[in-house]
Amino acid sequence: MDCSYLQALADRYLDGELGYLESAEFERHLRSCASCATELAETGAVRGALAAWGSIELAPPPGFAQRVIAAVEREPDAAARPFQRAVDGRLQEIDGLLGRVALPGGRSMLVRNLIGWGLAAAAVLIGIERRHVRHSRELRPS
Fold first, then answer.
1. Whole-angstrom Cα distance, residue 101 to residue 63?
2. Phi/psi class of residue 75: alpha, beta or left (left: φ > 0; alpha: ψ in -120 to 50)?
3. H/E element holding 22?
4. CB 55 within 8 A of CB 61
5. Which end of the chain has fewer CB within 10 Å, C or N?
6. What is the domain range of residue 33?
7. Is the pLDDT of residue 92 over 60?
8. Domain count of the chain?
């Protein structure tokens, strides 16, 4: 079993969706390939953390709200920040030009936010592809 085939099966393996033979072949490859074993362990850890995320109760430390309020009160007035005013003005112009996108439930989203999220998603995908290409090059015999 080669590594690219293994990577395609990793999610199904973690979800327990592989048959007995596929699982055995998968595990045999993991015993002989430290890179794939490490990647599978990291993927499993991330999935576990994401699954537990909603069940973790986070409480702010004592006095947190008071410290935030005190820090905000110490901040200089926004009118004293000409750069921020200029940026805010340009963002409002952009919002006026681009408008909003309707979402289900009667909500809407600024188009500039949608564009920003799209750019962030593209950057993540490019990073994943670069990692995959680099990993593939490492596996090729020289």
1. 39
2. beta
3. helix 20-32
4. no
5. C
6. 1-52
7. yes
8. 2
Do 141 and 102 fall within a single domain? yes
pTM for this predicted structure: 0.37
Residues 80, 32: Cα–Cα separation, whole Å: 63
| Vertex 57: Cα angle to 53 and 63 (nearest 5) | 130
Q: Which of the 8 DSSP states describes residue 33? A: -
Token pair in block for residue 53: 């995320």
Residue 119 burial by CB count (10 A; 0-12/13-18/19+): exposed, middle or buried? exposed
Instruction: Write down the pLDDT at residue 73.
Output: 84
The phi-psi region of residue 31 (left if phi > 0; otherwise alpha if psi is between -120 and 50; otherwise beta) is alpha
pLDDT digits (tens, 9 = 90+) for 11-67: 888 888 888 888 888 888 888 888 888 888 888 888 888 777 777 777 888 999 999
